[in-house]
Write a structure and sequence with these properties.
The complex is a heterodimer of chains A (345) and B (317).
Chain A: H1 9-19, H2 22-38, H3 54-78, H4 87-103, H5 108-130, H6 135-155, H7 185-206, H8 209-219, H9 221-226, H10 231-257, H11 267-280, H12 285-301, H13 309-323
Helix pairs in contact in A: 3-7, 3-10, 3-11, 3-12, 4-5, 4-6, 4-10, 5-10, 7-8, 7-10, 8-10, 11-12
Chain B: H1 5-8, H2 10-38, H3 45-64, H4 75-111, H5 115-137, E1 142-143, E2 152-156, E3 159-162, H6 163-185, H7 187-197, H8 199-204, H9 209-235, E4 237-238, H10 242-257, H11 262-283, H12 288-302
Antiparallel strand pairs in B: 1-4, 2-3
The chains are: A mainly alpha (345), B mainly alpha (317).
Chain lengths: 345, 317
């Protein structure tokens, strides 16, 4: 393989982190969290989005995309299974929020566990029969699952079909922090907290048994099975955890948007989230975050060329994938799989 | 639930299903040929179909000059016009297929990187294609001139043999047969099969890999373009987003039959077309995709490599 000598931001970042001692690490972490938390106040700078409200863009698409991309990264990046129906879990979370929010007196935080639970349940139900499949077959089955979920809510009466569900309640205020439509800073901070929890979960799991099992499955499933890794069990775990993050993102999205309809949960969302993962650097949490931030933010930033923005978006994606095929911030060389020729052959 | 159609319209649904199935067969050849050679899902193929439908309209308008007033054509002139539109659409799609390969796949293939990067780059190319057409047509549907008056040859057992249905079945069959002969008998076809078996070994045998890959994309584009022509002739309207559903159905058909396998795509496409017709007649057309996907999941669970299997090296493209 050709040695490519582009500047490696990922290794530089990892180097800084590894050289730092504990207080320095805490300082770095706290500073970056505060900087991210202050992002909604930077709306007047060059970051401003021309048409959509800036702090709304930070919540959706940017924040929700980062959250979902992290969830999908558990499935695609960590354990190497191609999931093209990730939007299904997002939809399940959002519809749980919409139905329970309008029919029961529960608030967003009380519905959150239900949304996550239903998404995980769907993950197990889908995973048990299908995770024996590999590669592209898994991709098409998950793609079909995503479409089935969308078509079922589109054609059922309980979900009000194509009209969607309106009047979903907002989250209740937390002390002095109020959730408002025209000022979505609090939503943004909630998303950031959810992202931090997800990062924490992924990092903890990565260094423990499930992380090692996923890594083994990703590199060579047959070898992992032979070494005694219960591959099906850990694949389902990976799928279910990814589903849980998707479900949580869905609940938050429903509660933020106040209205959901089936057309918001098309295959395009799954593909976009997958693009975030691959564009940023598959398998590397920080790469995925950067990728999702850019792909979520870019179309809104370039809205001044309104009609052609998706065209520009597609072109950028082609160029970047051709010149940085491992993504903007690829995972460490050491972690790269020994690419097995014709894995699905 | 309306099971009475099973007795009243059985043969009629069958013949319509087979005609629709042939459109799927021809599109799924675009997926299956590429998959056989590169082991990659050619996601951009759905947008190649879409461009093909527009190419058909362009060709028809170019011939008819004044499509709004002219009457449907007859006789030799009709056959020649249809044939020209078919060839034009097929060639346009074939060349577009080659272009897609150059832009989306070639560099990544040379680097030998992960398959996901190629997947995303193909998806990005399809975004570019559909967006370009959307902007050019202002998202409005485009109607094709009515070349072919839809007269019927007559009814057999309640099945209506309309001229377009017959045309699709006959020419679809011819195209598939020709392709099957080409891949299995000709020298170039042998090269394609060799590359699909082993890239390294075929390179050692002196096969020009890039040329074979381009050829595969070209042939896949040709059949896809033919399908786009049939689609436009039957439905007489197209839009920037027609590719998505057609591509999804055709890809499902390819997987159903065993992706990478020419004959698998044939039977998979026909089966899917008939299944879609029956499920929309019985359950209502909004549930047809759900039925299709459920059948797909069941097939994959029982036989994970599709009905006809993908590992049959002899019949593989």
């Amino acid at each position: 393989m050709k040695i490519r000598n582009y500047w490696n931001l990922r290794d530089w970042g990892a180097g800084v982190w590894e050289r730092a001692n504990r207080p320095q690490r805490v300082a770095i972490a706290i500073t970056s969290i505060i900087l991210v938390g202050l992002l909604p106040f930077a709306g007047a700078s060059f970051l401003a989005t021309p048409i959509a409200s800036y702090d709304a863009v930070l919540v959706y698409p940017v924040g929700v995309f980062v959250l979902m991309a992290l969830g999908l990264n558990i499935v695609v990046g960590k354990s190497g299974m191609l999931d093209l129906g990730y939007v299904a879990f997002f939809a399940i979370g959002a519809y749980t929020m919409a139905l329970m929010g309008t029919h029961t007196g529960l608030n967003t935080w009380e519905i959150m566990p239900f949304g996550i639970g239903f998404a995980m349940l769907a993950g197990v139900l889908l995973g048990l029969p299908t995770l024996r499949l590999r590669g592209d077959y898994l991709a098409i089955v998950t793609l079909g699952f995503g479409e089935i979920v969308r078509l079922v809510v589109l054609n059922s009466t309980w979900s009000k079909g194509p009209n969607g569900i309106a009047n979903i309640p907002m989250p209740p205020d937390i002390g002095p922090l109020k959730f408002k439509l025209d000022d979505q800073k609090v939503f943004f901070w909630v998303v950031v907290i959810m992202i931090l929890l997800t990062i924490w979960m992924i990092r903890r799991l990565s260094v423990r048994r499930p992380g090692r099992a996923w890594e083994a499955i990703r590199q060579d499933e047959d070898a992992a099975e032979l070494m005694g890794v219960p591959t099906l069990k850990y694949k389902i775990w990976s799928f279910t955890l990814g589903a849980a993050v998707g479900g949580a993102a869905g609940v938050l999205y429903g509660s933020k948007n106040l209205f959901i309809a089936p057309e918001m949960f098309t295959l395009n969302v799954s593909i976009l989230i997958l693009s975030c993962v691959v564009f940023g650097g598959i398998g590397n949490i920080w790469g995925v975050i950067v990728g999702a931030t850019i792909l979520g933010y870019l179309p809104d930033r370039i809205r001044f060329i309104s009609d052609a923005r998706l065209l520009v978006f597609g072109t950028v994606l082609v160029v970047v994938m051709n010149f940085r095929p491992d993504g903007l911030l690829p995972r460490k060389k050491r972690e790269k799989a020994i690419v097995k020729k014709g894995v699905n052959a | 639930m309306n099971f009475s159609v099973l007795t009243t319209q059985f043969w009629s649904l069958c013949i319509q299903g087979i005609a629709l199935g042939f459109i799927y067969v021809l599109i799924s050849l675009g997926y299956t040929m590429v998959y056989g050679v590169l082991r990659l899902i050619n996601f951009a193929n759905s947008e190649v179909v879409m461009v093909g439908t527009f190419a058909t309209v362009v060709a028809q308008v170019a011939i008819l000059k004044n499509p709004a007033t002219s009457d449907p054509l007859h006789g030799t002139r009709l056959v020649l016009t249809l044939f020209f539109a078919l060839v034009f659409s097929a060639l346009a799609c074939g060349l577009l297929g080659v272009l897609v390969e150059l832009v989306a796949y070639r560099r990544l293939r040379a680097l030998g990187t992960n398959r996901l990067a190629s997947l995303i780059s193909a998806i990005a190319v399809s975004i570019v294609l559909s967006e370009a057409v959307r902007i050019y047509t202002h998202s409005a549907p485009v109607t094709s001139p009515r070349l072919l008056e839809k007269w019927s040859f007559g009814e057999v057992a309640g099945a209506n043999f309309r001229v377009d249905t017959v045309m699709i079945i006959v020419s679809g069959g011819i195209i598939f047969f020709a392709l099957d002969r080409f891949v299995n008998k000709s020298r170039l076809g042998k090269a394609i099969r060799a590359v699909s078996m082993s890239e390294e070994n075929s390179k050692l045998m002196g096969i020009n890999l890039n040329r074979v890959v381009s050829l595969t994309f070209f042939i896949g584009g040709l059949t896809t373009g033919a399908a786009a022509f049939f689609y436009t002739t039957v439905y007489e309207t197209t839009q920037f987003n027609v590719g998505f559903n057609l591509g999804l159905a055709a890809f499902t058909a390819a997987v159903l039959g065993g992706i990478g396998n020419l004959r698998g795509a044939f039977y998979g496409g026909l089966f899917l077309g008939v299944l879609e017709q029956f499920s929309s007649a019985i359950l209502g057309s909004q549930w047809k995709s759900v039925t299709v996907f459920l059948v797909l999941v069941l097939v994959l669970l029982i036989k994970p490599s599709g009905i006809f299997g993908e590992a049959v090296q002899q019949t593989r493209t």
